[in-house]
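Whiteboard transcription, Tuesday session. T.W. wrote the C-alpha cells on the left side:
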C-alpha cells in the first residue's frame, strides 16, 4: 500500500508543481498580456521552429548511434533501428513517469536482444553521467559569461536562505538521515537482500565500465559533442522565431538553456517549469516576462510534440514490427 502511494505521489507531485508554474505567470498577467503571449506563439516564424525540431531529431538519432558503441561489448548487439525505438520509448515514458524512461529503454533491448536490465541500465547510467558532465561544463561557461547578471541574483537568494535556516531543524534532519541509513543497513543484512543488491550492482558496473572498455571511444566522444551542439543550436535557432530576440547574446541563450535543461529533472518533461524558468532567466537580461514566456512555451511545445510523435512511432514499431529488430 505504501509502495503504491509513493509511486502515485512520485507522479502527481511533479505534475502539480508543473501545473502551479503554469498558473503562476498566467495569474500575474492581465487579459491583454495573455492575449499577447497567445498571439506571439500563434504568429511565430515556424520555419525556425521546424529547423529547431530537425536539429533535436538529429541529436536523438546520434544518441542511438552512440549507444551502440557501448552495447557492442555484449552478445546480440541491437541494431541502430532498435536503439532508435528504445530511445524514443524512453523519452515518451519520461513524460509521464519520472525517470521511468531509462528503465523502459533498457527493457526494450532486453526484450529484443536479451541484454539484461542491469547491464542495459549500466550503459544508460554511464551515458547520463557523461551528459551531466557536459551540462555542468556548459553551466560553468554560462555562469562565467553572464556573471554580471547571474551572481547578484544567486547571492541574494543564498543570503535569504542562510538567514532563514534553523540550525536545530538542520540537525534533526541530519539525525533522521543517519537513523534511516542505519535502519536500512540492518534490515538489508537481516533479510539477506545484500546478495541481490550486489548482483544488481555488478550488472550495473559491467554496463557502466563499457564506457572505458569500448573500442571506439573517440567516435563516442564526437557523438556526445554533436548531441550537445545540436541541443544548444536548436535552442538558439528557436529564438529567431520571435521578434525581440534578433540580437540575443550568447550568455543569455546559454543561461536560459541551462535553466530549461535542469527543469526537466524536477518536473515530468519540464511541464510548466521549462517555460517558467526560461522566462525568469531572460528577465535578468532585460527581456520582458511576456516575451520570455512566449519563447519558453514555443520551445517546450515543439520539443514535447517531437517526443510524443517520435515516442508513439517507436512504440508502434516495437509492438507491431518486433521482427525488424535485432542484429
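and on the right, the sequence the group agreed on:
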Amino acid at each position: 500500500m505504501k509502495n503504491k502511494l509513493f509511486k502515485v505521489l512520485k507522479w502527481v507531485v511533479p505534475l502539480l508543481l508543473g501545473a502551479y508554474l503554469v498558473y503562476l505567470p498566467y495569474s500575474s498577467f492581465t487579459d491583454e498580456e495573455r492575449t499577447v503571449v497567445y498571439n506571439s506563439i500563434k504568429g511565430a516564424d515556424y520555419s525556425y521552429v521546424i529547423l529547431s525540431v530537425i536539429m533535436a531529431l538529429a541529436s536523438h538519432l546520434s544518441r542511438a548511434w552512440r549507444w551502440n558503441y557501448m552495447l557492442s561489448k555484449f552478445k546480440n548487439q541491437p541494431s541502430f533501428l532498435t536503439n532508435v525505438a528504445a530511445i524514443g520509448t524512453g523519452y515518451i515514458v519520461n513524460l509521464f513517469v519520472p525517470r521511468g524512461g531509462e528503465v523502459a529503454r533498457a527493457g526494450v533491448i532486453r526484450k529484443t536482444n536479451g541484454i539484461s536490465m542491469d547491464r542495459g541500465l549500466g550503459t544508460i547510467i554511464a551515458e547520463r553521467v557523461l551528459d551531466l558532465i557536459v551540462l555542468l561544463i556548459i553551466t560553468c561557461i554560462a555562469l562565467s559569461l553572464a556573471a554580471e547578471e547571474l551572481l547578484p541574483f544567486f547571492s541574494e537568494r543564498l543570503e535569504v536562505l542562510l538567514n532563514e535556516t534553523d540550525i536545530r531543524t538542520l540537525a534533526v534532519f541530519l539525525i533522521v538521515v543517519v537513523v534511516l541509513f542505519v535502519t536500512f543497513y540492518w534490515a538489508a543484512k537481516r533479510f539477506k537482500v545484500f546478495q541481490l543488491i550486489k548482483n544488481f550492482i555488478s550488472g550495473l558496473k559491467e554496463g557502466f565500465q563499457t564506457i572505458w572498455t569500448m573500442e571506439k571511444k573517440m567516435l563516442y566522444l564526437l557523438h556526445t559533442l554533436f548531441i550537445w551542439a545540436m541541443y544548444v543550436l536548436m535552442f538558439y535557432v528557436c529564438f529567431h522565431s520571435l521578434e525581440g530576440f534578433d540580437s540575443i547574446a550568447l550568455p543569455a541563450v546559454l543561461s536560459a538553456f541551462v535553466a530549461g535543461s535542469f527543469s526537466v529533472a524536477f518536473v515530468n518533461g519540464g511541464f510548466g517549469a521549462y517555460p517558467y524558468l526560461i522566462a525568469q532567466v531572460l528577465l535578468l537580461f532585460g527581456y520582458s516576462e511576456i516575451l520570455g514566456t512566449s519563447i519558453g512555451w514555443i520551445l517546450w511545445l515543439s520539443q514535447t510534440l517531437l517526443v510524443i510523435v517520435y515516442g508513439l512511432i517507436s512504440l508502434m514499431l516495437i509492438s507491431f514490427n518486433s521482427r525488424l529488430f535485432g542484429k
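Someone added at the bottom: The two ends are 42 Å apart (CA to CA).
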